[in-house]
Amino acid sequence: MKTNYLKWIAASAALMPLALAGCGGESESGNATNGTTNGAMSNAATGETTGAKLTGAIAGDGSSTVFPITEAVAEEFGKMHPAVKVTVGISGTGGGFKKFASGDTVLQDASRPIKAKEDAAMKAKKIQYIELPVAYDGLAVVVNPKNTWAKSLTVAELKKIWAPGSKVKNWSQVRAGFPNAPLKLYGAGTDSGTFDYFTEAINGKEGASRSDYTASEDDNTLVQGISRDVNALGYFGLAYYEENMGKLKLVAIDGGKGPIEPTQETVSNSTYAPLSRPLFVYIERKAADRPEIQEFMKFYLTTGKSLVKGVGYVPMPDEMYDASLKRFEARTVGTVYNAATKGKPLSELYKS
Question: Are 97 and 62 within 8 A, CB to CB?
């Protein structure tokens, strides 16, 4: 049954960072306990722990897109380990990485891979991290329900609208036959991984975008704006559309093979192109040896995968969750993303 996690976020946004009280390329073996928590044996398939009571705190921040997954996992984990406290903020992927590099957090939600400059900031602070894919997502392009004309858009039309310096201010400038009506734009803020991914996919360069639009790292703000403006067009993660589909209308995107809408199926098989993407959690390397983080991440990558679809995202294949878990248990640090790996599938990048 569909959960109400995203609606809960909207009501709680003013309280961020949110306290979920009672919730719980280079290989480095470190001091991994391989399932042992404070002398207690752990069941890797369920995250259950017998013996000593698990305690501790996990501080996280980052992407509002990934937040619903982490929040759902933390809620379920907290039922088993009520003495573990997980706090998660939504500063956006970029904002979260700044906190991660400063040592303020040990868990980072990210809707894109870490950037080279962010990786350099980590190295400057001697911070190592473990990069873990956790789900797939599609970016939804949406309009107001009263919009009767924009049933689909091509990638070229999206670029025409969103390119840096774009002078498109009227729907009639987008396509012949569209009405003479002002075009009001809503999109992700510059600290958001959604902004980075959308701009690269549509405009060909990360961060390349016109600036005269309503921007926010909080997707709920964008939902509210578009739902109240008949001439609005915006973009954000598919989960936020699915949670608010009564207030919005989806626009099919033509990437060269005809108009395709983002769905669980089209995102997982990559036919919804170019706006499908993987989602990540990053864990600080030294913190990964803490018992509460070991159990939380094992739970996230095993039992937690069953929660992904419930909050509107697309689960990865089981073998990818297995690969992520092996990467965590081996304490494999660093990112697999660089110029040479761009465009390669997760299954190839994260071979076990």
Answer: yes
CATH 3.40.190.10 range(s) for the chain read: 5-136+278-349, 138-268
Question: Residue type at 48?
Answer: E
Report the 3 state secondary structure along the chain: CCCCHHHHHHHHHHHCCEEECCCCCEECCCCCCCCEECCEEEECCCCEECCCCCCEEEEEEECCCCHHHHHHHHHHHHHHCCCEEEEECCCHHHHHHHHHHCCCCCEEEECCCCCHHHHHHHHHCCCCEEEEEEEEEEEEEEECCCCCCCCEEEHHHHHHHHCCCCCCCEHHHCCCCCCCCECEEEEECCCCHHHHHHHHHHHCCCCCCCCCCEEECCHHHHHHHHHCCCCEEEEEEHHHHHHCCCCCEECEEECCCCEECCCHHHHHCCCCCCCEEEEEEEEECCHHHCHHHHHHHHHHHCHHHHHCHHHCCECCCHHHHHHHHHHHHCCEEECCCCCCCCCCCHHHHCCC
CATH number of this structure's domain 5-136+278-349: 3.40.190.10
The domain over range 138-268 is classified in CATH as 1.20.1250.20? no
**Res. 191 pLDDT band, cuts 50 70 90:** confident
Chain segment 209-254, per-residue pLDDT in tens: 999 999 998 889 999 999 999 999 999 988 889 889 999 999 999 9
The pTM of the full predicted model, rounded to 2 decimals, is: 0.71
Which value, in Å, is the radius of gyration of the alpha carbons in the chain? 20
Other CB atoms within 10 Å distance of the CB of residue 345: 10
